[in-house]
């Protein structure tokens, strides 16, 4: 069967992201927070929450890690769709894959300096014969 889990930030971090992996620099906020754009989430809701990098993080990086996912196979493919917003200040947004047997993170998607100041969606498909995190 397929497991389809929606992840939002309305009450907290969602199950897919681990609390202790929220590094300094990430803020859970909404469009009404008075912190500048975006003034709503991807659906136009100004009171819906999303994660944002604080402006002090302009020259450094911050990571969000998922919980550990089980291996994929022909029946169970992992598909992750996420919405993102990049401002003039933004650097590069990257998605990396770390398999259980490896210490390194393999970069599987990245974007920088494109279509700024609007919400975009992206879907990535992950195949892994071993447990992994993203």
From TrEMBL:
Listed transmembrane segments: none
Pfam family, one: MAM
Limits of the MAM domain: 5-134
Matches recorded under CDD domains: MAM
PROSITE patterns, sorted: MAM_2
Tree of life domain: Eukaryota
Entries under Gene3D superfamilies matching the protein: 2.60.120.200
PANTHER family xrefs: APICAL ENDOSOMAL GLYCOPROTEIN PRECURSOR, MAM DOMAIN-CONTAINING PROTEIN
Name of protein: MALR1 protein
Organism of origin: Nyctiprogne leucopyga
Chain's gene name: Malrd1_1
């Amino acid at each position: 069967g397929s497991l389809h889990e929606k992840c939002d930030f309305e009450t907290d971090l969602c199950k897919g992201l681990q609390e202790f992996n929220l590094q300094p620099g990430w803020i859970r906020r909404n469009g009404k927070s008075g912190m500048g754009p975006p003034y709503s989430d991807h659906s136009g809701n100004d009171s819906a929450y999303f994660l944002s990098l604080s402006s002090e993080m302009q020259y450094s990086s911050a990571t969000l890690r998922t919980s550990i996912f089980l291996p994929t196979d022909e029946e169970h493919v992992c598909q992750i769709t996420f919405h993102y917003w990049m401002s003039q200040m933004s650097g590069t947004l990257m998605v990396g894959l770390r398999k259980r047997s490896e210490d390194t993170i393999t970069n599987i998607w990245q974007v920088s300096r494109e279509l700024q100041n609007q919400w975009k969606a992206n879907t990535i498909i992950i195949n892994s014969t071993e447990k992994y995190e993203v």
